[in-house]
Amino acid sequence: MKTLVKTILTSVLILAGIVVSGAALAQYQGGHARFGFYFGVPLFGPAYYPYYAPPNYYPPYYPPDIQHTAGWMKENELMMSDVPWAVAWYGRHQCVWLTLNAQDDFFAINDYLKPVQALYLTPETMDGKFVSDLVRSGEHSWGSFITLGVLQNQIPQGFPLRNSPTGFLPERLFLTDRERWKTAQ
């Protein structure tokens, strides 16, 4: 309700400013007094319509799902994602960008900087081009990791994140070191 009142008030003030400036401009330059009306109506028109929350643009990500998933994590645990800005913003949780590969680069962060407790992949990665992103991407790439993990249900040997809740595949992938969703209930 407050947002609707703000919208109406803002529209009225903008319209009044345009009408007054249009009338002043019309008197000064000898133009038409209808200037303010023609430019004010499009700004004032939306105030008559009820306010709706802005839509969620899914894919590549859905903010409520990110908030829910990040809620399973403890405060100082690190996540890795293909959309780390969304995890940091909507999930309010520290997150690093998906590394170039699932082997050397991942383990460089996991072993030497900070352990990665969760991997969250969105349609940004999961819905990639099959041949160029998944088949020809290399042995230790995220494409081959997804192919093994999703199609063959095998997480590569030695990868520390092995647990995944139901309901994420095939659009998203959430892997973690333990079954966090059971303890969060």
Folded structure, characterized:
- With 185 residues, the protein is α/β, with parallel strands linked by helices.
- It has two domains: 2-48; 63-183, no CATH class.
- Helix content is 46%, strand content 9%.
- It has nine helices and four strands; from the N terminus they run H-H-H-E-H-E-H-E-H-H-H-E-H.
- It has a four-stranded mixed beta sheet with strand order 2-1-3-4.
- Helix 1 (2-29) runs antiparallel to helix 2 (35-44).
- The longest helix has 28 residues, at 2-29.
- It is elongated.
- The model has no long low-confidence stretch (mean pLDDT 79).
Summarize, please:
By secondary structure, this protein is α/β, with parallel strands linked by helices. It contains 9 helices and 4 strands.
Provide the fold topology.
Blueprint: H1 2-29, H2 35-44, H3 63-70, E1 78-81, H4 84-90, E2 95-97, H5 104-112, E3 116-121, H6 123-126, H7 130-135, H8 142-151, E4 173-176, H9 180-183
Parallel strand pairs: 1-2, 1-3
Antiparallel strand pairs: 3-4
Helix pairs in contact: 1-2
